[in-house]
């Protein structure tokens, strides 16, 4: 939800509306499957549905990785976004239900708050990791491409990282007008080469970050093997905090 819109708008020139349309199958299928799959636990163990959802997410991400290119269209995103949405709907709906079912009803509000808090924490952490990888690969690829064009030689690892940091700092401190002025001072051939280098770097960064997310999904699939195969029975309420004799005394006023 972070890296895909960044790629669509920065690399492919999509508007915010077009990016929303491209992600619509993902959101729609997530909602429909999460709501519609609640009764499937009667026939299939929730653990298996969760694992199936993870398989769908990984497969959809791989399809999206294969289709990530400068000519990617909204139509071409329907299938991978739908597959990822189906997987996330299965995963989220069943996992929350399986988790809540193991908590006594008296603690349902607390457990719901914990789940929401950890979900937000995981989303923030995942966004930070994916965003860092995406930007790091992008700037490194730009450095590689520019160095290869200018000198015909490849840059070393340490020098590549140093130049990537300097490039990132330069882009953050210069205005749009300054960047356009710099670009206008280049010859048409260099402008075309620079544009192609930037576009290729964006595509490479997006493909790599999607592969990294697939690895996260595989780790989650391995961790899901520790989930219980049978749905735990929820206990009714928490233990009473007062002794029976104390309750009797209170109720009779004695």
Tags for this model:
Growth Hormone, Chain: A, transmembrane transporter activity, 254 residues, mainly alpha
Kindly describe this structure.
The protein has 254 residues and is an all-alpha fold. The chain has one domain: Growth Hormone, Chain: A (Up-down Bundle). It comes from Halalkalicoccus paucihalophilus.
What's the CATH topology name? Growth Hormone, Chain: A
Q: Name the poorly predicted regions.
A: 237-247
What summary fits the major beta sheet? Answer: none
Name the helix and strand elements from N-terminus to C-terminus, one letter apiece: HHHHHHHHH
Overall geometric form: elongated
Task: Compute the average pLDDT.
Answer: 82
Q: In the CATH classification, which architecture applies?
A: Up-down Bundle
* Total count of helical runs of at least 4 residues: 9
Rg calculated over all Cα atoms: 25 Å
Region (Disordered): 231-254
Transmembrane segments: 20-37, 49-66, 72-91, 121-142, 208-229
InterPro entries: MFS (IPR011701), MFS_trans_sf (IPR036259)
Subcellular location: Membrane
């Amino acid at each position: 939800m972070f890296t895909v819109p960044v790629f669509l708008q920065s690399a492919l020139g999509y508007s915010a509306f077009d990016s929303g349309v491209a992600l619509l199958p993902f959101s729609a299928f997530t909602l429909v499957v999460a709501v519609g799959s609640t009764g499937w636990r009667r026939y299939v163990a929730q653990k298996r549905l969760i694992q199936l959802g993870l398989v769908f997410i990984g497969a959809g991400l791989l399809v999206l990785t294969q289709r990530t290119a400068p000519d990617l269209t909204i139509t071409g995103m329907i299938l991978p976004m739908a597959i990822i949405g189906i997987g996330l709907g299965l995963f989220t709906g069943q996992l929350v239900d399986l988790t809540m079912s193991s908590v006594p009803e008296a603690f349902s509000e607390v457990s719901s708050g914990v789940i929401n808090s950890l979900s937000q924490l995981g989303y923030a952490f995942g966004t930070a990791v994916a965003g860092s990888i995406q930007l790091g690969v992008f700037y490194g690829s730009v450095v590689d491409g520019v160095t290869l064009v200018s000198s015909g030689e490849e840059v070393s690892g340490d020098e590549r990282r140093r130049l990537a940091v300097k490039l990132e700092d330069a882009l953050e401190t210069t205005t749009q007008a300054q960047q356009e002025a710099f670009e206008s001072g280049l010859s048409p051939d260099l402008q075309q080469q620079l544009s192609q280098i930037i576009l290729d770097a964006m595509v490479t960064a997006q493909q790599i970050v999607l592969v990294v997310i697939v690895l996260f999904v595989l780790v989650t699939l391995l961790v899901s093997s520790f989930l219980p195969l049978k749905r735990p029975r929820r206990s009714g309420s928490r233990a009473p905090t007062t002794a029976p004799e104390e309750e009797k005394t209170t109720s009779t006023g004695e």
